[in-house]
Amino acid sequence: MALISAIICTHNRDTYLGAAIDSLLAQDFPGSFEVVVVDNASKDRTREVVEARLPNPKVKYIYEPVTGLSVARNTGAKTASAEILAYLDDDAIASSQWLRVLHEAYQSNDKLAIAGGKVTLIWPEGISPPKWLSSELSGNLGYYNLGDSVVYIEQPGLTPRGLNYSIHRTFLEQIGGFDTNLGRVGKKLLSNEELHTTELAIKQGWQVAYLPEALVAHNVAPERVKPSWFIERGWWQGISECYREQLAGKAGLGQLSRGGERMIRGMYKSLKNITDPAKRFDNFVYAYGQIGYLGAAIQGIISTSINPRH
Predict the structure, then answer these.
(1) Residues 99, 107 contacting (CB under 8 angstroms)
(2) What average pLDDT score do residues 95-111 get?
(3) Can you give the residue range of the structural domain that contains 245?
(4) Distances (CA, A) of 309 to 15, 247, 254, 304, 306
């Protein structure tokens, strides 16, 4: 049995997928490990990319027809054999020590439920970070850096990023898997599944760790270096936050006042920083996201009034 299972959930990313798998096969890990690739209803050359690497006995391929990142992650967990599940995005490159650092952390701490590491960005050739991109918004591209020391997360908002994310099987089974109401589904940029899972871990007495040496580099897709992508991402972030609150029992009219207050604050800060392109755009995206949040909140209130729970 593998000591740790590396899982890649992929959907139509054949351009990047091969390098992601190869970075896992090149791991400096002294024990047994496996690489599980979950093909989430891809229609490109994904299967061919994986099959070219199937002669390596470490690689497993499974097709999941139901679209959704959380669905694919749960399928990967069921397929994997190890107690420690390490998730790498299909457009990321793991450093050679990635699995070793993660595995050692769990071996030395039986209270550890979730761990992830630093994420740097790989910009497309000929493209530089735009002036309107703040370090905060870079997080939407996967950037994640809490420094060079191990940090135990107490605020769920600082949770490790899903592209560089590991979880203990015991905890994942305890919470019933990743919540399929959260997480990306096709072009719907839903998120917050890691934040929700971290919240549950902290509440239940587990620990969540940031491990700087568990380093991963994430490719920035050229189509994401556009203001319109960040605006859409902000909208879905707002919807995701609303869903997460509903799952936590915080739904209702209070969401309307919270969302309205945040929208006004974001617009005020955007106007206040009119001469700073990064701060101006960052706060505009935040404010715009609250429109998505408010829309989902209103929909939830209407749905509850029509179908009240008994």
Answers:
(1) no
(2) 98
(3) 227-306
(4) 47, 14, 19, 7, 10
Query: Among candidates 151, 244, 150, 242, which has minimal Cα distance to 195?
Result: 244
Q: What is the bridge-based pairing of β-strands 4-10 and 33-40?
A: parallel
The CATH number of the domain where 158 resides is what? 3.90.550.10
* 154 burial type by CB count under 10 A (0-12 exposed, 13-18 middle, 19+ buried): exposed
Per-residue pLDDT, averaged over 272-295, amounts to 95
Q: Which residue has the tokens 């609303």?
A: 242
Which of 174, 198, 224 represents a domain boundary (last residue)? 224
Radius of gyration of the chain (CA): 20
Looking at the DSSP bridge assignments, the partners of residue 217 are: 93, 120
Backbone angles phi, psi at 284, to 5 degrees: -65, -45
Residues counted in the chain: 310
Q: CA 105, 69, 54: angle at the middle one, nearest 5?
A: 75
* Boundary residue ending a domain (224, 241, 276): 224
184, 239 Cβ separation under 8 angstroms: no
**Residue 182 confidence (pLDDT):** 65
Q: What is the pLDDT of residue 310?
A: 42
Q: At residue 77, does pLDDT exceed 90?
A: yes
Read off the pTM.
0.87
Q: Which DSSP category does 156 fall into?
A: G
What is the reported pLDDT for 190? 46
- Helix crossing, 227-247 with 254-272: angle to 10°? 150
- How confident is the model over 38-55, as a mean pLDDT? 97
E strand intervals along 151-206: 151-152, 164-168
Question: How many Cβ atoms sit within 10 Å of the Cβ of residue 29?
Answer: 20
Give yes or no for a contact between 147 and 35, defined as CB atoms under 8 angstroms apart: no
**Statement to judge: residues 84 and 157 lie in one domain:** yes
| Domain total of the chain | 2
